[in-house]
Amino acid sequence: MHHLLQRGLAPYFLLLLLLAPTLAEAQGLVTLRGRVLTTEGQAIPYAGLQLVGSRRGAVADSLGGYQLQLPEGRYRLRVSALGYQSQQRELVLTTRTPELQLDFRLVASSRQLEGVEIVARGIGRLQRSPYNAVTLESRAYRSSTKSLSEVLAAAPGVKVRQTGGVGSDTNVSLDGFSGKHVKVFIDGIPQEGLGRSFGLNNIPISYAERIEVYRGVVPVDFATDAIGGVINIVTSQRTRPWYVDASYAAGSFATHRSTLSVGGRLGQAGFFGVEAFQNYSRNNYWVDTPVQDFASGTIDLDRVEHVQRFHDTYHNEAVVAKLGLQRQPWADRLQLSLRYAQYYKEIQTGVRQSIVFGERHRRGYSWSPTLEYVRRQLLDGRLDLTLMTSYTQARGTLVDTTAYKYNWRGERELGLGLGEQGYTHNRDDERTWTASLSSLLRLRSGATLKLSHQFSHFTRETSSLLARQVVGTDIPDRTAKAVTGLSLQLRPQGWLGTTLFAKHYLQRVSGAIATTGLQGQFVRHSYATSTFGYGLASSAELGRGWQLKASYERAYRLPSITELFGDNDLDQGKLGLRPEYSHNLNLNASWSHRLGELHQLLLEGGLIWRDTRDYIQRTVQNNGGGHWGASYINYGRVHTRGLNLGLHYDYSDWLSLGGNYTLMDVRDALATDPTSGLPNVGYKHRMPNLPYSFGGLELSLRRKGILGEGSLLSLGYDNQYTRAFTFYSERLGVNARDFLVPDQLAHNLTMTLSLARERYALSLECRNLTDAALYDNYSLQKAGRALYAKLRVHLGH
C-alpha cells in the first residue's frame, strides 16, 4: 500500500476494493429488504434494525432503505429511530422464499429511543451511522427568536462567527476549519449558489426541520469538496392535510422578524407549501472604539469612546413556494420549488472597527427554481435514484459615491476624493446552475453501493454604473466544478460497519488577469484542476452503550468563487490558487445509558488530526489611504490537533442539561518561507484569527399543565465561552491590545409559554445578559444586552 501511495495509484486501488467484495451472491440465505417510513410514507433515514437477543442487524440508508441476509429460521426484528415509536415483528424465514419485501411504518413520538440516538436540548446523535454526525431538531427552538446560525452554535465543535448584528456576514468554524472550508447545503443545494439573501444569519429556524452537522469525513451523498465538514439544512418533506404557522418577533435595536408558512395536500397525491419570512433591524447597538478627530486628523488608539452604530440598517424578504406529487407509479416524489429573496444592507465598518462608513450600502435580489425527482425500489427493489437541478440568478449592487468621510460620532467632513472605500457603483449579475445525481444500489451480498455526482457552473458579469451608460466587463468570471463520489458500505456484523469511498474533483476556472502594473489592461486566463481523494469510515457498537467511530480521508477543497474572483468590495480574489488538500483522521468514543424511564445520559469525546497543504488563508491588508481590504494566499502547511468533549443529560421530560468543550490547536507547520527561502518566523505559532478554546452550557426546565391541559412552560439558560485569541500572528505580540480578541462569556435567558399543545406560544428572551463586550472577527464588536419577544400561532396538522 505504501508503494501505491508513492505512485499515486491508491485511488484506483480503493475503487477496486469498493467493487470486488460484493460480486458473489450468498447461498442458502434469505434476503430481507424494504424501507422504513413514516405513517405518511416519508423515508426515515438511518433507522436501526436489530434482531432481538442478537447483535446482528442493519442500518437503513439516507432514503430509509435496508437489506439484511439471514439463515432460515424464526426471528423477532425490532426497528427504531429518533422521534418514532419502536416496532417489532415476528418473522419466519425459509429458503423456499429466498427474497422477502418488508416495509415498516413508524408512528411519530416525542420520546427518545435507546440504542439509536440520545437527544438532549434538541440535539440527536446518529449513533449507527459510521460518520461523526449530529442532528439538531428545530422543533425545540421554533417558538424562540433564534436564527439558524444561533441554533447551530449549540452543536459540539461548532463556532458560529459574525461580523455584527442582524444580516452581518457569518461563517462557521468546525473542528478548526472555518469559512469556505465548511460547506453549507439547503436541501442538497450548495448555499453559496443561492445568493446573499439565503445566509445562515437571516434564515429563521422555522424554515428547517433539522440541521445535520457532519464533522471530519464527509459522506459521498453531498458530492462536495468540503475539507472541514458539511452542514445540511433540511426542510420538511412531510405532507399534511393543511397547516398554517405564523410568527412575529420584535426587540432591541429596532429588530422585527416575521414568518408565515402555509401548505397542505391537493387530492390524493398532490401537495403544496409556501414559506415567507422577513428580517429588519437598525443594528444601532453601542460599541467601544477609538474615534478619529477631524480637527487634528488623528486617531488616539489609547482613548476609547462609547459610541452608537448609526449606519447599519438591514432588511431582507424571502418567499419559497413548492408544488409536487408523491407516491406515483413513476415517481415517489416530484417537486418544483421557487425561491425569491431580496435584501438591503448599510455598511457600517470595513474589516477593522477603526474604519467607519456613513453612506456605503449594498442591495440585491435573487430567484431560483429547483426541480427534484425521487424514484425508489427500482430493479426489483435494489435501486434508489434522486435527481435534482437548480438555477439561480442573482443581482447585487454596491454604492460608494459620497464625497464625505465619517467618524464614529456620526460627524462628517469633505474628503480628498469620492467614495469612502473607493469610488464605486458596481452591479454584479451572477448565474449559477447546479445538477446532481444520487443513486443507491443494494447488492445481494448485503452491501450497499452509492454513487453521487454534482455539477455546478457559475458566471459573474460586473458592470459599472458610474457613467451615464452602463459599462460592462469584457471578461466575465466563470467556474465549472464537478465532484463525483463512490462508496461501498459493508456491515459484516450487526454491530460493526465500514464504508469505503473515493472521490474525484474537477474544476475549470476562467477570469481576467492584469497585463500591466497599473492593471489598465486585462487578458483572459483559464486553467483546470483534476484530482482524486479517498478514505474510509467505521463504527463499532461494543455493548453496554459504548460505541467507537474512526475515519480517515485524503480530502480536497477547490478554491471558492470569492477566493478566486473576490467580492468586488473588500475581498480581492486571486486566480491560480491551488486546491487545499489534507490528511484527516478522526476518532470518537461515546457512551449512552438509560436508567429506567427517567434518566438518559450521553458522554462523548473525540480526537482529530489534520495535515493540510496549500492552506488557503484570508489575510487583512492595508491598501493605503486609511483603506483596508482582504486577500487570499496558498499557505504551505498547517497542522491541526483537536479535542471535543460533550455531556448531555435528560431527566424525564422536564429537565435537560448539556455542555460541550472544544480545543483546536491549528499551527503553522512551514519551517521555511517559500518566497524568501529564509526561516519562517511564524513556524509553530498558532494560525491567526482562529478561536482555539471555546465551549458552552445549556439548561432547560419544562413544566406541563401549568395553565391547564396542553400548556407548557419552558425556562432556558445557555452560555458561550471563548478564550482570548490573536487576530494577527502571535509573533507580533499577544499582549498588544490591537492584536488580541479578549476572553468573553455570554449568558442568555429564555422563557416560553405554549398553550393548546403548542398551537399558541409566547417567548421572551434576553441575550448577553451581562452586557459583555463580544467579538468574533478581528476587532468587530457584536451587540450588547438585547431583549426580544415573539408570538407564534400554529393551526392545522
Concise overview:
By secondary structure, the chain is mainly beta. The protein has five helices and 50 strands. The strands form nine sheets. The chain has a 22-stranded antiparallel barrel. The protein has a seven-stranded mixed sheet with strand order 9-10-11-17-18-15-16, with no helix packed on it.
Q: What structural class is derived from the secondary structure elements?
A: mainly beta
State the low-pLDDT regions, or none.
1-27, 109-123
Q: Classify the helix fraction into a percent range.
A: under 10%
The N- to C-terminal Cα distance equals 57 Å
DSSP helix count? 5
Largest sheet: 22 strands, antiparallel, barrel
Radius of gyration: 27 Å
Strand proportion, as a percent range, falls in over 45%
Could you give the count of β-strands? Answer: 50
Average residue-wise pLDDT:
82
What overall geometry do the principal axes of the alpha carbons give?
A: globular
